[in-house]
Amino acid sequence: MNEPTIHIEEVLGRAQQGVTEPFICRADDGAIYFVKGKGAGRRSQICEWVAAQLATEFGLPIAEYALAEVPVELIEAEVFPGIRQLGSGIVFASRELPHPQELTAITRDLVTEDVARDVLVFDWWLHNEDRNLTARGGNPNLLWDMQGSELVVIDHNQAFDRDFDPVNFLNSHVFSNRWNRVFGDHLERERYGIKLKAILPKLANIRANIPDSWWYVDDGVPADVTWNEIETCLERCRREDFWNTP
């Protein structure tokens, strides 16, 4: 179930933005992908893959993604500086958009109300604090598709944050001004609660789709993430205190 659907054929460069600095690669389907391999960290790969599937189930407009295979021959040939940080084997790949622009304070106002609330609630559910944009700037990890005039969600490598700070989240999240419209509306909270709980039965299949190799940073050395902590974070939506804020 965790077999790659595309194969990396060429490494074109490396992104300069973002903590993980993904590699820019061309796959056998002809498309360009931002690829996060072993150097990005196993926790990062697992968080990306799990969150991407959850985003699909939730209905967020996420960039197309896939499991990709990097051939060992490509790494051994060292066709690109630092390519060994990509590593061979299965990697996480996010497809490049044709006309992307990082979301700004101006394009944020073009996002529909429903989508803005969805992103806010989804990040609250995943304990994803890494989507900030205030008057002082920030990094929303969201794109605005100039061609389609719509929001595109990317980057969930810091989801399931063990040090999640709800106060900071509500002060800095790109759509934090929508919080009261959800929290203050009993029907909205109920609607989102039903939507989130409907996804929980699919967690077993999502777990099965995580590549086995990602659970280890090296032979016998486990990755800095467990399925239990991910599941515990997501199961919070069953609790009455899920919406509680400090």
Task: Outline the secondary-structure elements.
Elements: E1 6-14, E2 23-27, E3 32-36, H1 42-58, E4 65-70, H2 72-76, E5 89-95, E6 100-102, H3 105-108, H4 113-126, E7 142-145, E8 150-153, H5 166-172, H6 179-183, H7 186-199, H8 203-208, E9 216-218, E10 221-222, H9 227-235
Parallel strand pairs: 1-4
Antiparallel strand pairs: 1-2, 2-3, 3-5, 4-5, 6-7, 7-8, 9-10
Q: What is the alpha-carbon Rg in Å? A: 18 Å
Tertiary shape = globular
Order of helices and strands: EEEHEHEEHHEEHHHHEEH
As a percent range, the share of strand residues is: 15-25%
Number of helices: 9
Q: Uncertain spans, ≥5 residues at pLDDT below 50?
A: none
- Major pleated sheet: 5 strands, mixed, barrel
Secondary structure category:
alpha+beta
Strands of the largest sheet, in order across it? 1-2-3-5-4
Distance between the termini: 41 Å
DSSP, total strands: 10
- Provide the residue-averaged pLDDT: 94
